[in-house]
Design goal:
alpha/beta; 2 domains; six-stranded mixed sheet; 6 strands
């Protein structure tokens, strides 16, 4: 009986234990499902959050890429075109190995656009490629200033400054800083300048007073000598008629040495010409420099003071083998005096520029002899100047267009750095841009010739009014 009762109790225990175990398992199963659902929900939310983060990152990346692609605007006027920094103006081929190496070096900073670049990226690419081969264009302002200078003494000129007076005085301000020792193909820049100035002086009428002032000729280019050099300027040949022996002796003393004090030279020129008032004297000043003023001074203010004095000079500026930064400053000096600026690269072009003053001096000599001035001669001379200007600028835009085209061919076919589609887009952009330049120069040429057929004074005034508004500040 006891045994049977024990067996019965054990049976009941196991049954209850089995029921209890099943209930526990069910409860555990219920909890497990709820946990799974919760985990799945959290995983879904996490995936959605990750997707949202990825989308945000993608948007940020796209915005970042968009911000990083900066497209430099192309010029809208010829004056803006002339302001662009020149690049590699000499032709670079793509056939020989050494040419390809040079092309690789010039274009190594350009991005690989062999994928699918955006229009903005292609436009930015073109701007960078164009900058590499940018030509040194000259705006109409330089030609207009040159035409105005050549019109001195013409019968229909009503500006007293531009009219011939009883006396003609020509003062040359010559940079004698150390950089004038630079080699210019067999001779230094100073040697070339001395030769050109000597030839110029010889051609002037015998009654012309000529003067030569140098600046920056003392000390050295070291910081220790800066103060000495920046305070150095000397009138080595005073304003008197030209005599070969005395002038040569003055030239022989000039040795390039130090810094470049352009303001000092202009201030001293005003003192040199003080006895020669504009009412009785036609005063012409030529400033020749191979670089920017390096003496922490203000050449533009000095130029304005000289121009506005009762000397009423005509100031022309020549940049001799000068860099773009120097050109900008010297152009500002010329602009402040309503004078001409010319950039010359060698002895021949320096001589050509000075010869223009010789022609004006010969006109003055004829005027003084009561022989009059031929308007027809002026028109022919202007026509030749316009022709020369147009020919030079045409060569530049043709060379630039072809050079960019050759570079595109090389980068696409040889280097595989762009697709055919990208190259076609860039080639079309290149053609359209240079078609615009061609059209602008043709329009200017037509305007110049039409105005040249009228009164010289009116023609120059109309050109100045039109293109002054377009000139960049």
């Amino acid at each position: 009986m006891k045994i049977r009762n024990l067996f019965l109790c054990l049976s009941i225990f196991f049954i209850l234990a089995g029921c209890g175990g099943k209930e526990t398992a069910d409860e555990k199963g219920t909890l497990s499902n709820e946990a799974i659902e919760l985990a799945e929900s959290k995983e879904t939310n996490t995936e959605q959050q990750d997707e949202m983060i990825d989308d945000e990152d993608m948007i940020k990346d796209e915005e970042k890429d968009s911000e990083e692609v900066v497209v430099q605007p192309l010029p809208q006027t010829l004056a803006e075109l002339a302001e662009r920094l020149p690049g590699k103006t000499e032709y670079v081929g793509i056939l020989r190995e050494e040419e390809q190496k040079e092309m690789d070096e010039l274009t190594k900073h350009l991005p690989d656009i062999s994928g699918e670049p955006s229009k903005q990226q292609l436009d930015a690419y073109y701007s960078e490629l164009l900058a590499i081969f940018q030509q040194d264009f000259h705006g109409p302002e330089e030609l207009i200033a040159s035409l105005r200078f050549q019109a001195i003494g013409s019968p229909d000129i009503d500006n007293p400054r531009m009219q011939f007076k009883e006396n003609l005085n020509v003062l040359v301000l010559l940079d004698a800083s150390g950089s004038m020792n630079a080699n210019l193909g067999g001779q230094t820049q100073m040697e070339a300048a001395k030769t050109a100035i000597t030839n110029f002086m010889k051609e002037l009428p015998i009654d012309t007073n000529v003067g030569l002032r140098i600046y920056g000729h003392e000390g050295t280019g070291s910081d220790a000598d800066k103060q000495l050099s920046c305070s150095s300027s000397e009138l080595v040949y005073p304003l008197t008629p030209y005599t070969q022996a005395d002038f040569q002796a003055a030239l022989d003393k000039i040795k390039p040495a130090g810094w470049t004090p352009i303001q000092l030279a202009l201030n001293e020129a005003e003192k040199d010409l003080a006895p020669f008032k504009g009412e009785e004297n036609t005063n012409i000043v030529y400033l020749v420099s191979d670089g920017i003023s390096t003496c922490d001074d203000d050449p533009v203010t000095a130029a304005k003071s000289l121009y506005n004095s009762d000397i009423t000079p005509i100031v022309n500026v020549i940049g001799f083998n000068i860099d773009h930064e120097g050109q900008k400053q010297l152009k500002e000096v010329a602009k402040a005096t309503e004078g001409s600026y010319r950039d010359v690269q060698n002895a021949e072009t320096l001589q050509d520029e000075l010869n223009q003053a010789s022609e004006v001096a010969k006109k003055w000599e004829d005027w003084k002899k009561k022989q009059g001035v031929s308007l027809e001669h002026d028109r022919i001379r202007n026509w030749l100047a316009i022709f020369g200007y147009d020919t030079d600028e045409e060569r530049k835009w043709i060379d630039e267009r072809q050079q960019v085209g050759f570079a595109l061919q090389y980068l696409q076919q040889d280097k595989k750095l762009m697709s055919q589609e990208s190259r076609q887009y860039l080639a079309n952009k290149n053609r359209e841009y240079h078609d615009w330049i061609e059209a602008e120069y043709k329009k200017l040429k037509a305007e110049l010739h039409a105005l040249n057929d009228g009164q010289i004074n009116d023609a120059i005034q109309m050109l100045e009014e039109k293109y002054r508004d377009n000139a960049p500040e």
